[in-house]
């Protein structure tokens, strides 16, 4: 077991003021693998003060200098990719192949994109007789989730640093080890002391202290909608900016002209990725009534290939496992039909849930309305395109989605009707430069690419 006894504040490693610790558990075997410091409000205060002291110098640095530091950080992340993947697998339970490709690979690409943007973005522009300046918003409090622990860190920290902001990061208590690795990479990249600070700790303690701190100018949070509302209220009381990436209940709409076997196979794979612990997962599959039974058979066969412990990992904790199994039991109680998986626990240790597919789901059922955050797919019938649009838009969420049709034009025409922030057309691949974020209760603001950079800038106009 590794014992991490320090947090990264003002360019050095220091113990938590209170001396408390948090245990990190491997969800695949339920064994404690490490401890990290339990940061307090005093630790958060020290980190914010360091970030404020470093802000003037970092904000004044030339964009090319910030770009060079981010490029060095990208190189550090790339050099330690194998260690990063192994760490995420140990603390999150993700299969190593997925950790290597996504949890370690994607952050390198995102960090690299901001290294480029920092050197090319127009931080000044002319509009008539005005010069418009795009300046850093200030000190950023970044609170990140456990499901994509390094990607979400980089998706917040890299654009903030590119903009000239300084950062205090509070990672999720379930997956803090990769945040420790990230801080080591920041240090090795030569980013000045105080520009980035790491405080590990519990959400109600360190997270709340960070959201409330008067020295924080913007709070960027990714997590549940309930917690996002709480953070929004705390930030609103101080009239500080927030960027919130919250829950989802995304619809995968398969139009009658689509290649049904491909659409179903990709849809099931999307739901099962990361053990279903993805806010943008297409957890509702909408199929025309004439092709519904065929789609159910295809989905059940596809889900059966996701063997727990092989192609799909455990959930992050016992609490999350029990929560997801509770949703499966509720789906059965409300009349949904299980065609794959179910609430029974797979044999052996680990926080596993059987990959589950529900048929005969109606729009008002709990499993069609609430974010389950596990490997659970609901398949719904629709009568025509108007009915499909009504069902797809019929939740409080609007984060992502997909549309499949015989040609892209038909799919795009339907996608324009969806109240959601991102839609994949006929299996379109992920673009790390495209804006990511939601409509409705899926959040406020955007991450990734130039739109993500803009979240950390404020605007000043000079009239001549």
Describe this structure in words.
- This protein has 464 residues and is α/β, with parallel strands linked by helices.
- 41% of the residues lie in helices and 21% in strands.
- It is built from 15 helices and 21 strands.
- A 7-stranded mixed sheet has the order 15-16-17-14-13-18-19, sandwiched between helices. A 6-stranded mixed sheet has the order 10-9-8-11-12-20, sandwiched between helices.
- A hairpin with a 4-residue loop joins β4 and β5.
- α2 packs antiparallel against α4, α2 crosses α6 and α3 packs across α4.
- The longest helix is centred in the first third of the chain and has 25 residues.
- The chain is globular.
- The N and C termini lie far apart (63 Å).
- The mean pLDDT is 97.
On the 0-100 scale, what is the average pLDDT?
Answer: 97
By secondary-structure content and strand pairing, the structural class works out as alpha/beta
| Largest pleated sheet | 7 strands, mixed
Portion of residues within helices:
40-55%
Q: Report how far the terminal alpha carbons are from each other.
A: 63 Å
**What form results from the Cα inertia axes?**
globular
Query: What is the total tally of β strands?
Result: 21
**Count of helix runs:** 15
Strands in their spatial order, largest beta sheet: 15-16-17-14-13-18-19
Strand content: 15-25%
Contiguous low-pLDDT stretches (5 residues minimum) are none
Radius of gyration based on Cα positions? 22 Å
Protein topology:
Elements: E1 2-3, E2 7-9, E3 12-14, E4 21-26, E5 31-37, H1 41-60, H2 63-79, H3 81-92, H4 96-120, E6 124-127, E7 130-136, E8 139-143, H5 149-163, E9 166-170, H6 177-188, E10 196-198, H7 203-212, E11 218-222, H8 225-237, E12 241-245, E13 251-254, H9 260-272, E14 284-288, H10 292-303, H11 318-333, E15 337-340, E16 356-361, H12 366-369, E17 376-382, H13 385-392, E18 401-404, H14 408-415, E19 424-425, E20 443-444, H15 449-454, E21 457-463
Parallel strand pairs: 1-5, 8-9, 8-11, 9-10, 11-12, 13-14, 13-18, 14-17, 16-17, 18-19
Antiparallel strand pairs: 2-3, 4-5, 6-7, 7-21, 12-20, 15-16
Helix pairs in contact: 1-7, 2-4, 2-5, 2-6, 3-4, 4-5, 9-10
């Amino acid at each position: 077991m590794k014992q991490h006894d320090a947090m990264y504040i003002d360019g050095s490693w220091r113990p938590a003021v209170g001396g408390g610790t948090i245990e990190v558990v491997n969800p695949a075997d339920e064994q404690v693998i490490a401890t990290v410091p339990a940061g307090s409000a005093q630790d958060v205060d020290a980190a914010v003060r360091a970030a404020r002291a470093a802000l003037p110098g970092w904000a004044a640095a030339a964009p090319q200098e910030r770009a060079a530091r981010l490029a060095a950080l990208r190189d550090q992340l790339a050099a330690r990719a194998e260690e990063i993947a192994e760490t995420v697998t140990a603390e999150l339970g993700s299969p190593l192949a997925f950790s290597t490709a996504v949890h370690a690979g994607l952050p390198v690409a995102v960090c690299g994109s901001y290294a480029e943007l920092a050197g090319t973005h127009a931080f000044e522009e002319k509009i008539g007789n005005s010069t418009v300046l795009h300046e850093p918003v200030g000190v950023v409090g970044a609170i990140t989730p456990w499901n994509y622990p390094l990607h979400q860190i980089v998706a917040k920290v890299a654009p903030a640093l590119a903009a000239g902001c300084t950062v205090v990061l509070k990672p999720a208590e379930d997956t803090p080890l990769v945040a420790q690795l990230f801080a080591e990479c920041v240090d090795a990249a030569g980013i000045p002391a105080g520009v980035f600070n790491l405080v590990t700790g519990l959400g109600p303690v360190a997270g709340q202290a960070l959201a409330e701190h008067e020295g924080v100018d913007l709070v960027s949070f990714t997590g549940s909608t309930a917690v996002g509302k709480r953070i929004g209220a705390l930030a609103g009381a101080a009239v500080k900016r927030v960027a919130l990436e919250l829950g989802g209940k995304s619809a995968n709409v398969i139009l009658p002209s689509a290649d049904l076997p491909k659409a179903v196979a990709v849809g099931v794979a999307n739901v099962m990725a990361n053990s279903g612990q993805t806010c943008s997962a297409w957890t509702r599959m909408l199929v025309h009534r004439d092709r519904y039974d065929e789609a159910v058979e295809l989905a059940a066969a596809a889900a059966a290939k996701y063997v727990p412990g092989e192609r799909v990992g455990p959930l992050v904790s016992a609490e999350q496992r029990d929560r997801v199994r509770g949703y499966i039991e509720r789906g059965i109680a409300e009349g949904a039909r299980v065609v794959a998986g179910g609430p029974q626990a797979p044999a052996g240790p680990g926080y596993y849930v059987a990959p589950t597919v529900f048929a005969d789901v109606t729009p008002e059922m709990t499993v069609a309305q609430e974010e389950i955050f596990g490997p659970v797919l609901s398949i719904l019938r629709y009568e025509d395109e108007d009915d499909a649009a009504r069902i797809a838009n019929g939740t409080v969420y609007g984060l992502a989605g997909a549309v499949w049709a015989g040609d892209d034009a038909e799919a795009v025409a339907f996608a324009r009707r969806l109240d959601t922030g991102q839609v994949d057309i006929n299996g379109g691949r992920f673009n790390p430069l495209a804006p990511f974020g939601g409509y409705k209760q899926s959040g406020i603001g955007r991450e990734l690419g130039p739109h993500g950079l803009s979240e950390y800038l404020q605007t000043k106009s000079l009239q001549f």
